[in-house]
Every structure is written in C-alpha cells, then in structure tokens.
Amino acid sequence: MYLLTPGMVMDLYMYGCVFSILFQGRPEMDRQNGKNIRSEARHWLVFYTQQLGKDMEDQAQNLVHGNIQLAERVAPPPATNLELTVEEVVEEYVGSFGWSQFLHVLLVSLAWIFDSQNTLVTIFSDAQPSTWRCINNSSSSLCLSSSSKGDVSSVCGLMPGTWEWVSGHTSSIIAEWGLICDRRFLAAIPASLFFLGSLLGSAFFGHLADASLGRKRTVLLSCLLTSVTAFLTSLSSNIWIYSLLRFANGFSRSGIGICCIVLATEVVGRKWRGPVSQYGFFFFAAGFLSLPLIAYHTRTNWRNLYKILSLLPLAYSVLFFPFVSESPRWLLVRGRSKEALDVLKTFARLNGKTLPENLCLANPSAPGEGGENEALTKNCTKESLWRTKWAAIRMITVMIAGFGVGFVYYGVQLNVENLNFNLYFSVGLNALMEVPAVVIGTILLGLTGRRLLFSLSAFLAGISCLLCILFAHGKRAKKGDKSSTGNWAQLAIEGIGFMAASVAFDVLYVYCVELFPTNVRNFAVSQSRQALMLGASIAPLLVAAGRLSPSLSFLVFGILSIFSGVVSWWLPETRDAPLYDTLKQQEEDEKNKVANQITQA
Predict the structure, then answer these.
(1) What does the DSSP assignment read for 18-38?
(2) Could you report the per-residue pLDDT of 415-444, keeping only the tens digit for each?
(3) Is the dihedral of CA 536, 404, 500, 487 positive or negative?
(4) What b-and-e string marks burial along 296-312, b requiring 16 or more CB atoms within 10 Å of the CB?
C-alpha cells in the first residue's frame, strides 16, 4: 500500500486538467488550435506519468527499507553457545546420580573383585600346612615321637620320605617345594615381590591413565595382564619363577584399583562422590569373601586356585567392560571435547534427559592461537605434580599417611594365619568385617569431612592395636592353657582395629581423588597407592617378628596408625568441593577462597 505525498496530490490534479483538455475541449476553438492544445496535453501527460511513477517507486523503496530496519530491531539476537564445565553439566542437566551413572559405576566396580583376589590369594597358596604324619611304611621311632608333638618345626630333623603333609604335597607352595626349616625364609619372597610389583605398577599405570591411554583402556589393559600373569603363575616350576610371576601379577593388577575409583567418581555429582567411591570397596570385600569359597574347593592343589582366578578378569573384559564409558573429564583435558560431550549426552539420554543444543564444554585452561585442542593438550601435558610446590607438599603428606594405614591394613590380614583358628574361618571372618567397614564409611562420608573421618579411623585402629598388647602378654603367660577365651578377646579387638583401618584405607582413596585435579588425578592416586603398597611390603616382616614377640608387632602397628591420623591434619578439607581439571585452575581457585575467608574474617 502506497502513501500519497503533497507533491503526488498536485501531480494528480495536473493529470485531471490534462485529461479534461484531451477529452472535453472547447467548442469555440478552431480545429487547428484544438490540435495544438491536445498535442501539448499529450506531452504533459507523458511527463507527469513518468514523474508520478518515479515518486511512487521511491516511496515503495523507502517503505521496504523501513520495514527491514524495523524487522532487524524486533528480531531476536542470534543464539550463542552455552559454555559450562563438566561439573555444571552433570549437576544441572545429566543428574548427579541417575540410572546411567549407577550402571557405569556398577560395571567399573566389578573389577575390584579381581584386585582383591589376586592380592590376598597368597593367604591360601603360600600357607604352611598345619599337620603332617609319618608314612605308613616308616618304622622310624624318631618320626613317631615327633609326630606326637604336632609341631611343624619337628619335621626338620626327619629324613626325607619318612613323613608327609596330611593335606598333600600340592596343597601350597610350601608343601610342594619344601619351604620349611632352613628354607622357610624363601616363602616370604613371593609376597614381598608382589607388593613391590604393585608399588612400581601403581606409578606406571597412574601415569599411563593420565598421559595417554585414559582411565578405561588402562583398566582393560590391567585386567588382561592380571589374567595372563595369574594363569602363568599356576605353571610355575620352582619358587624363583613363582616369585617372578607374583611380581608381574602385582605389577599388572595395580592399575585396576587406581583407575576404577577415578573412573567411577568423575561422572557423578559432588555429593555422590563419597558414596560412589565406597561402592568399589564393597566389591573388594566381595572378592575377599569369595576367596575362602574358591580356595576350599581347590585346597589339595594351589595351581587350580590360580587357574580359576585367571578366568574371571578375562571374562569381565570380554562380556562387561565394552559397555563402560571413558571419563568425560579426561577426554576434555586431552582436548577431545566432542567425545566428552557425546559421553555426557549418552548419560543424559539414559537418565531420560536431554542437553541443550547450543551446549559446549568450558575449557579447563585458555587455548592459544594454535587451536583449542592443541593448546589445551600442550598446557595439560606440561603441568607436573612434583614441579608444583603446593601439590608436591600435599602429595608427600598423603603418602606418609598412606604408608601407616597400608602397614596396618595389610599387616592384620596377613597375620590371620598366626591366629589359633581355622584358616578358612579366620579369612572369611576378616572378609565379613570389610562389609560393615564399607557401610560405616559410606554413611559417615555423607555426614562428616574426609579429614576428620580419616584421622579418627586411624586413631581407633592404632588404639585397638595397642590394646592387643595386653592380650598378647596374657597369651604368652598362659601358653599351656588350652582355653580360647584370650584368643577370642584378641580376635575381637583385632577385628575392631581392622575395621577402623579398613575405613581409613577406603577414605584415603576418596580423599586423594578430591585433593588433586583431573590431569594428575590418576597419578596422584597411584602415588598414594604406592605408599600403601610400601607399607604392605614391610608388614610381613613385622608379622614374622611378631611370632617371637607379639607385643612388638602390635606396638609398631599402633604407633604408625596414630601417626598417620596426626599427619592428615595438614591436609585441606575437600567435602563438597568441586573437582578441578588442572593444577593452575585449582591453585587459583583455592587462593581466591582463602583470600575471601580472610576478607570476611
């Protein structure tokens, strides 16, 4: 629709005049004059028609231009990307802990079963048989008299071939290879080398999981190597090959624990990190509890025990592990933001939710001109835990605390064969104690801080070990007394100490996960595990010394455990704290928090 301007109105008036001349004319005019007037009128008609058309075209253009400007002012601005961190996406869109995360945590935590089984299998495979007997055709009076004593050490003076183990010569490596008397020290070598392998493997797999393979593929590699080394162990021909393969098995299985806890906790909201990290220890306890059941049916041949245990991680790797997702946090810090976003979309979809179309993940460090992925990967690769002062001090503190807890935790478990109870019953009871320890730890993690819970658990474990000194003295004073009252009391006190040590052991993993950022988290957990394994490798020596002086072992256990609880007070509290992605990001944020606290004070 066109608007008429005053100029256009005047033009229309002129049109009317021209038309009146053309079509009406005057009668008094002569023929010649009429022709001239009409000719001039035609000329003006053409002129005014062109002028009117030009005015109307200009008016139309102005109207269209005005509409475009109005549309530009009314139209909404173009959509911008919604940039959020992984933490924010999980909390606001995916859900802190939905069905997708539950299934993920369940599948990941199953691997803890194999970690437990391969760690504690030596309780049965390396156990010293409790009874022996004279061979029927032996008429040696020395054999008969020694047999009546019932003491295993009494066989040292007997001639080979005059006696045998009641359970058979293949019931354990000690029975098969004669690791008694002057060869008894050889029986401790496999366990020590196993924990030494675990110590070295923790550093290797921790770095591998952070730097190249990621959490998922590192767990897979560790499970496959654990399966292979366990099977090869069953084929050992002597104590030296057996010890070497136990070292390899300890090295292989160390990647399971350190990666599983990180892989499980990095996909849930902050309030669920504590409980989720404890779920893995339920499966560790389940693996521990399954050992007596498997070992009892293979009690006449220790090689069959290793063969059965080797099949479980292989089956898990083939049947269940393909459904596990990689950590989106690790993918992001490695510059693979699209893959990280795809993982989060999968979790959200299984939870019945959707992510915004314009969502993109915030980079944990600012990219440079070389591109987002290149700059991010380069920045994260250059960061080193040991070259960062605050992180190095924190790591050393965690390792000192972990050494004492690992010493007590594994020492009590390995000492179970020295109790005057059935071995299968004692191990089963110890395994059952893990369950309430995990339950208590899970509940208290949601109610108290990590530092407080760890220190109190370490204190309780230490005090329980010191109280056991009283019962140890009572046992030595009444050595000839067959009453088991003192033994049951000592077992109860040791059980309380073991449960407390187990809680501290579990909480330390959670604590370490939250103390360090994504790009060094696996390495930090591996360093903590190294400290635990170092304590575990020394614990058997103290257990052996405790056979001569029970008070000494309990005293050292108690002092180290209490010392670990004291050291933990130099660590910051991490309850409800976010999981950071880089050392620089965490350092800046923690400095800002300290500055704000000082300002508010």
Answers:
(1) HHHHHHT--TTS-HHHHHHHH
(2) 766 666 667 777 777 778 888 888 888 888
(3) positive
(4) eebbeebbbbbebbbeb
Per-residue pLDDT at 1: 45
pLDDT of 14 reads 54
DSSP letters spanning 572-587: PP-TTPPPPSSHHHHH
Both tokens of residue 376?
């991010």
Pairing of the two strands 82-84 and 132-134: unpaired
481: pLDDT strictly greater than 50: no
To which residue do tokens 């100490």 refer?
A: 497
CB 171 within 8 Å of CB 128: no
CB atoms within 10 A of CB 569: 12
Which of 89, 173, 72 has its CA nearest to residue 128?
173
C-alpha span between 328 and 417 (Å, rounded)? 44
The CA R_g of the chain, rounded to the nearest whole Å, is: 40
Mean pLDDT, to the nearest integer, of 202-228?
89
pLDDT of residue 372: 45
The segment with the largest mean pLDDT, out of 207-216, 395-404, 513-522, is: 395-404
Closest by CA to 211, choosing from 23, 381, 11, is 381
Look at residue 70 in the predicted model and tell me its pLDDT.
Answer: 47
Predicted local confidence at residue 364, as pLDDT: 59
Closest CA to 266 of 442, 514, 504: 514
> Which are the contacts of 287, defined by CB distance < 8 A and separation ≥ 6?
112, 113, 114, 115, 116, 117
**Which of 148-152, 158-162, 284-288 has the lowest average pLDDT?**
148-152
Among candidate residues 294, 172, 139, 297, the one with its CA nearest the CA of residue 239: 172
324: left (phi over 0), alpha (psi -120 to 50) or beta: beta
Say whether 83 sits in a helix, a strand or coil: strand
Question: Is-contact 205 218, C-beta < 8 A?
Answer: yes
